[in-house]
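>> received
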Amino acid sequence: MRLDERLHTVVGLSGTTVRLLDKAGSVSLELLSHLLASEGFELIGQGAERVLMPPFALLDTVPEREAEKATAWERHVTEVEFGKPLDADPTTPPRPEYDPASHTVEERVATKAAELRAIGWQASAGTVQRMRRRYREQGLWGLVDHRKTRVSSPTGRADNRVVSAIAEILASTTNESTGTRGRLRRRVEALLAERHGPGTVAMPSKSAFYRLAETMSEGTHAFGEATSRRSAARRPQGAFTPSSACRPGEMVQIDTTPLDVLVVLEDGVSGRPELTIAVDVATRTICAAVLRPAGTKAVDAALLLAKMLVPEPLRPGWSEALAMSTTLIPHRRLLEIDARLEQAAAKPVIVPETIGIDHGKVFVSNTFLTACRTLGVSVQPSRPATPTDKGIVERTFSSINTLFCQHIPGYTGSNTTRRGAEVEAIWTLAELDDLLQEWIVACWQQRPHEGLRSPFLPGRPMSPNDAYALLVSRTGYLPMPLSGPDYLELLPALWRSVNDYGIRVDHRTYNCPGLNPLRRRSSGVTAKGGLWEVHYDPYDLSQIWVRDARTGEWITVPWTHRHLVSAPFADFTWRRARDLLTMRGQDDTNQAAVAAAVDQLLTRAESGPDRRIAARTRAALEPARPVPALPPTPAPEDAEDETTVLAQPANVIPFGVFDAFTDGSRL
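>> returned
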């Protein structure tokens, strides 16, 4: 052996002590454990050959007849080696011709070869010697005729040039529309003729080619759904490592998807809403869910962050069994820290540390990233076009469809092939949102999840609430109260100057007396050229909020033509109204004309596709938002006397840090 860059020979063993002799004749004693753990230890020569364990499980793949033949060979080989077959009675003496005390190995081998030929086997002395050697190296597996266990090639005897061409064409059609095997055959023929010349490579018959194409396209959905094919192609080449977390909020995944349910938006208009959810990896808790009309905005994702930090209250009509106090969550201990949990539903409040997002424009927007930065949340983008990076939230969407959506009238199925002949929307967006929030508390949070198991009770799956109760007792709980101004911080921001006429945003003018100290003055923010910070709600453009850089307070500023519009309107409503004026040849920058068009757009219910624009606007305004409201708008002539006062936020009671107890030990 080689040890410490010197050659040694083992000359003695005593218990766990090894006596070594080097080339210089020096003798040393080494502990076997120290010797094997040494970095300079290396076996040299035939003694270094590693003894392989026979593959016992592979014997189950051997045909029955071949297994019986290998077992018979084992009896004969062991008789040659030891004088008696392996299954012989230990008290029975060996047969005289195989007695090791009377005959050498060569004699026993020759006798066994003659015996096998006498019973009809084609075996010579060399054959017996070869079987002895294979039995010593591999055991019973070495006596098997491996011609019967050889794994056939997936492509059979097909020409390698044809196989390479099929693989290349299949790879190039990943993003194309699904075609037939006939199209593949034609493209392969053209590629082979281009590379090797016409007629040089013989093509298999049509049936053989189709079998070959089926074998090579297995698992790629080459002739199936195009969406499944693209999804399979985006899977990582290496081993899939699932996301994991050890404490609530350590990793939260967020995403948006259309819900497979038709809802009544407004005035009978039906459409599929979009669902944005945040899922905690450690507990699988759906921290918050926001249901909006199609076209989720960055402000909706920011609102989702705010909802995560607020306890879900027991809503009217909900059963008392859905209260947090009825679960394993240590409600009494948490209530001493956060008084908001007194009437909370059975869903924990989880403050995220890191949020995993994809590259959707909603989540990479400045509004959402600023909201995360304000709340001290790290953002971890996934790799482009790699949904497996946030597989937990993707799988949660699938569970929502199967556990919730399919039981709702108006369920559309995941695609048109699964849609019924008559699908009718029954629930409004607000009603469906209430149902969804109740289902999250009553079903999802209390339903055992196969992916949640305690290392102390691996045989019992836990619910998200059970997992939270177990983890919060070790990691603690720190509340983060939010007020109305905190929500304003989450809204999209613009930078504008304050002039004599007020503030102009997208051809809309906002003005009020509260802007008087700011007119024609610099904000002092040199990075923005002295402009003032303006926040707006994309779902209600009737007012904006301006931060007074000197005092840090917010000024609520109404639109000057707000009295011409009978209802709040969204930015897409405003753009549609301007488009209508442009098509009519009118000035789309005339605020009064646009305001009138907006009002007509909101009040029309039965005239063409504009109903969907109005319905989206009204449905988007249904969920309550903690934004300070404007006072009633006075008459236009009294507009100069209008004053706007920001509602004072409620007093925030500071909370302490949760002192870990064993409340979750009841798991």
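>> The chain is about 30% helix and 15% strand.
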